[in-house]
Amino acid sequence: MPTNILVDDARLTGVIDFGLSGIGDPAIDMLPAWSMFDPAERVIFRETLGPEEATWQRGRAWALTLALQIIPYYAESAPHFAELGRRMLFGVVDDVEG
Question: In sequence order, what are the beta bridge partners of 14?
Answer without folding.
Answer: 6
